[in-house]
């Protein structure tokens, strides 16, 4: 079960149900993150969604030529914003979708505010799937154990060494975005980068691989890029050359962005691994988890605690 694909299908159905014509997508802070996780701007533009607005924005213009698709959480604040919107509608028609159950009293309040009868539809779109919770039923009921992480004595002790896990643990990622603004010497274009398995083939193929393999694959990616680069920069001596350049330039530019992004991310991960002495820290962690030589482990821990490179976070 692909949860990202399921949510993408829900949003796609919302847009398609509104019919043909230019549309605006009205969202709140949380649903903005949901949409950005599953759709790129270019993808959603193909569905005639030309404007993206926050429901709490006070500076929205009146655009009666647009249909409004509202994707909101059913909070009191959002319902109040929606009531204000319906009393002075800025768009020709409204399709309202809530991400969870909305109370009957709130639906009544929305109906009372819709004096101009601009609301075409109100629905609850709850992202849950049967197969997500129960699949391939057997005669023997399965046993699900839900444990607090406090009961997991091993995993919190170990540093992670796969690409996706290292990004989460060392850099932090929110809504597929990584803040690299604090990286020494970072260029303006790379202060924030997006890592999405849906739209980044290199990341999708490497996100679960070990860090050593990532370094090798980054090198291969760089070599492929260098092979294509001279061809793209050759002299344009004929109409055919110009046509070939125009056709290949978007692909070349995309590859250039992919190379720059992953070289920067992997480079920063390598810097942090070295700066925080994580290879040695991880070796001691593995010994603690897999071996019973407590005397040797104690000496190694003492040595690490005395190392100024080892941070309090890694020592804890």
TrEMBL record:
<dbReference type="GO" id="GO:0016192">
    <property type="term" value="P:vesicle-mediated transport"/>
</dbReference>
<dbReference type="Pfam" id="PF00995">
    <property type="entry name" value="Sec1"/>
</dbReference>
<protein>
    <recommendedName>
        <fullName>Vacuolar protein sorting-associated protein 45</fullName>
    </recommendedName>
</protein>
<dbReference type="InterPro" id="IPR001619">
    <property type="entry name" value="Sec1-like"/>
</dbReference>
<keyword id="KW-0813">Transport</keyword>
<dbReference type="GO" id="GO:0015031">
    <property type="term" value="P:protein transport"/>
</dbReference>
<keyword id="KW-0472">Membrane</keyword>
<comment type="similarity">
    <text>Belongs to the STXBP/unc-18/SEC1 family.</text>
</comment>
<dbReference type="GO" id="GO:0012505">
    <property type="term" value="C:endomembrane system"/>
</dbReference>
<dbReference type="GO" id="GO:0031410">
    <property type="term" value="C:cytoplasmic vesicle"/>
</dbReference>
<dbReference type="InterPro" id="IPR036045">
    <property type="entry name" value="Sec1-like_sf"/>
</dbReference>
<dbReference type="InterPro" id="IPR043154">
    <property type="entry name" value="Sec-1-like_dom1"/>
</dbReference>
<keyword id="KW-0653">Protein transport</keyword>
<dbReference type="InterPro" id="IPR043127">
    <property type="entry name" value="Sec-1-like_dom3a"/>
</dbReference>
